TrEMBL record, chain A:
<dbReference type="Pfam" id="PF00005">
    <property type="entry name" value="ABC_tran"/>
</dbReference>
<keyword id="KW-0547">Nucleotide-binding</keyword>
<keyword id="KW-0813">Transport</keyword>
<dbReference type="InterPro" id="IPR003593">
    <property type="entry name" value="AAA+_ATPase"/>
</dbReference>
<protein>
    <submittedName>
        <fullName>ABC transporter ATP-binding protein</fullName>
    </submittedName>
</protein>
<dbReference type="InterPro" id="IPR017871">
    <property type="entry name" value="ABC_transporter-like_CS"/>
</dbReference>
<comment type="similarity">
    <text>Belongs to the ABC transporter superfamily.</text>
</comment>
<dbReference type="InterPro" id="IPR050153">
    <property type="entry name" value="Metal_Ion_Import_ABC"/>
</dbReference>
<keyword id="KW-0067">ATP-binding</keyword>
UniProtKB/TrEMBL annotation, chain B:
<feature type="transmembrane region" description="Helical">
    <location>
        <begin position="44"/>
        <end position="62"/>
    </location>
</feature>
<dbReference type="Pfam" id="PF00950">
    <property type="entry name" value="ABC-3"/>
</dbReference>
<feature type="transmembrane region" description="Helical">
    <location>
        <begin position="99"/>
        <end position="118"/>
    </location>
</feature>
<feature type="transmembrane region" description="Helical">
    <location>
        <begin position="253"/>
        <end position="272"/>
    </location>
</feature>
<dbReference type="InterPro" id="IPR001626">
    <property type="entry name" value="ABC_TroCD"/>
</dbReference>
<comment type="similarity">
    <text>Belongs to the ABC-3 integral membrane protein family.</text>
</comment>
<feature type="transmembrane region" description="Helical">
    <location>
        <begin position="178"/>
        <end position="196"/>
    </location>
</feature>
<feature type="transmembrane region" description="Helical">
    <location>
        <begin position="138"/>
        <end position="157"/>
    </location>
</feature>
<feature type="transmembrane region" description="Helical">
    <location>
        <begin position="17"/>
        <end position="37"/>
    </location>
</feature>
Length: 245, 287
């Protein structure tokens, strides 16, 4: 029995200024699945992840996670972070304990050990006392993975986790993903590298504002489906009427 | 020795000013560090100028009475804080032009109100501070605000830092960032208000922001910056008051100038990104 929840999207619509970014999407990810979410730019991948995490308002339909209060962690793209902030790497990893420690409780020696182990697991063992300002983009992404490790979530949502990282870092981080998969957690990752998806991700959702296909990766990424995804009109229709569907 | 201790030993008003300013020097720069890290230094300026019309209104009604001016300032400051927050949301975070407009209007309104009744010396007192102005209520206010600021900030420390470093993560983890930020802004308003008797509304922000900006050059980590900022503020307050006494300067500008000197020293000689550290070429390490 996998510890991760099944994720069910039923007729999900989420909008930006009433224009749908995710439009009537129904899809199902089984408990413990390792799935990629792919699609062209502007296909609504980030909005979909944020909707699943409960951070974006759902206009219609719903997101259902199975199980009793599964813990959800989201790795957003790095753009919103202040990488010049004066904070040490170990403290960033300790942030992953927020759900347990909250604003006031102190981190125990065991917590610090756990954070240190997480750093070692992503190849940053010697970085604990290093300020984040001194890190490269790839190292910073490893650091965020260490924080995710400590978060110990049941459902892990990753938004373009391998952007701006080199092949070796990507391979290391991929190993972390496999480890999570092996532990039965549910992992959903937004990705652009379709070769990587075909090689490493058993399941896949092809999104182009609407769900083109969802299921086993080989079937989803058929030539016909890829073509349909590419046909998606990126621009808003300013004069679009209210959706009747 | 007499130069350093004489004024404080000899005159009660200098002692009161010193105690009050030291209390604020321990509390205000910590707020400044967060304002700087959030890149909202301008907000402090706006709040400081925003309290001016309220203080002036209190002055119009009750003369130089600390409670009246403080209540007026508190109301005006909180209104401006709410207004600045609304402007920030309405402009999607690009609020600097609107905030500048806001503080210019607030300042002009404050000066106009004081001119209705007071004379030039009242105006100077209000804007630039007056050591003699630190009477019992003012001293209690300064000490009280510092006493309130430190524990509240200690509780808000982690949420504020997290919200600042990674707002997306904070939101995902359910940190109530808006709530903590509102509390933080109330502390800023209170500190500006407490400082105005000794330093004036124009200069009150100086003790908050200059040590904070200087602290960047002394530490690479938040807690180190906090210690450095407090140390710089304590030195600025002490030597600023001495300069104010010996050279017969208004106390607010004297303290801020002293903080300015220490900031310049930090920029030049500070170990983190200081100019000297950049100029002196040391051989690179092996790995």
């Amino acid at each position: 029995m996998p510890r991760g929840p099944a994720v069910d999207l039923a007729n999900l619509t989420a909008t930006h200024q009433r224009h749908p970014a995710v439009h009537h999407v129904s899809a199902h990810f089984a408990a413990g699945s390792l799935a990629a979410i792919v699609g062209p730019n502007g296909a609504g991948k980030t909005t979909l992840l944020r909707s699943i995490a409960g951070l974006h308002r759902v206009d219609e339909g719903r997101v259902t996670l199975s199980g009793h209060k599964p813990r959800v962690a989201l790795l957003p793209q790095q753009s919103g972070m202040d990488r010049a902030f004066p904070i040490l790497c170990l403290d960033v990893v300790l942030q992953g304990l927020w759900s347990r420690l909250g604003a006031f409780r102190g981190a125990s020696a065991a917590d610090r050990d756990r954070a240190q182990h997480a750093l070692e697991a992503v190849g940053l063992g010697g970085f604990a006392r290093r300020p984040v300002g001194a890190m490269s983009a790839g190292q910073f992404q490893r650091l965020l993975f260490a924080r995710l490790l400590v978060q110990d979530a049941d459902l892990i949502l990753l938004d373009e986790p391998f952007n701006a990282v080199d092949a070796r870092t990507a391979a290391d981080l991929l190993a972390v993903l496999r480890r999570w998969h092996g532990e039965g957690r549910t992992v959903l990752a937004v990705l652009h590298d379709l070769d990587l998806v075909e090689r490493e991700f058993p399941d896949c959702l092809l999104l182009a504002r609407e769900a083109i296909a969802c299921g086993p990766t080989a079937e989803v990424l058929s030539a016909q489906n890829r073509l349909r995804a590419r046909m998606m009109a990126e621009a808003w229709d300013e004069s679009a009427p209210a959706c009747a569907a | 020795m007499d130069f350093l201790f004489g004024p404080f030993l000899e005159f009660g008003f200098m002692r009161r000013a010193l105690v009050g300013c030291l209390a604020l020097a321990v509390a205000a720069p910590l707020l400044g560090v967060f304002l700087m890290l959030r890149r909202t230094s301008l907000t402090a300026e706006v709040l400081a100028h925003g309290v001016t019309p309220g203080i002036a209104a209190g002055f119009l009604i009750a003369g130089l009475s600390v409670p009246a001016m403080s209540i007026g300032g508190l109301i005006a400051g909180l209104l401006v804080a709410v207004g600045a927050g609304a402007l920030s949301r309405a402009t999607g975070g690009r609020e600097d032009a609107a905030l500048t407009a806001l503080y210019l209007i607030a300042l002009a309104l404050g000066v106009t109100l004081v001119s209705l009744r007071g004379d030039t010396s009242d105006l100077t007192h209000l804007l630039f501070g007056q050591v003699l102005g630190v009477d019992d209520p003012a001293l209690l206010m300064m000490a009280g605000v510092a006493t309130l600021t430190l524990p509240v900030l200690a509780l808000a420390w982690r949420p504020l830092a997290l919200e600042c470093f990674d707002p997306g993560f904070a939101q995902a983890e359910g940190v109530r960032g808006g709530l903590w930020h509102a509390l933080f802004l109330v502390l800023v308003v209170l500190n500006v208000l407490a400082a105005f008797q000794a330093m004036g509304t124009l200069m009150a922000v100086g003790l908050m922001m200059l040590p904070a900006v200087a602290s960047r050059h002394w530490a690479r980590e938040l807690s180190g910056m906090a210690y450095a900022a407090v140390a710089i503020a304590v030195l600025s307050a002490t030597f600023g008051l001495l300069a104010s006494y010996h050279l017969d300067l208004p106390s607010g500008p004297a303290i801020v100038l002293m903080a300015g000197v220490l900031w310049a020293v930090s920029v030049i000689a500070g170990p983190v990104d200081g100019l000297v550290a950049r100029w002196v070429r040391r051989p690179h390490l092996a790995g």
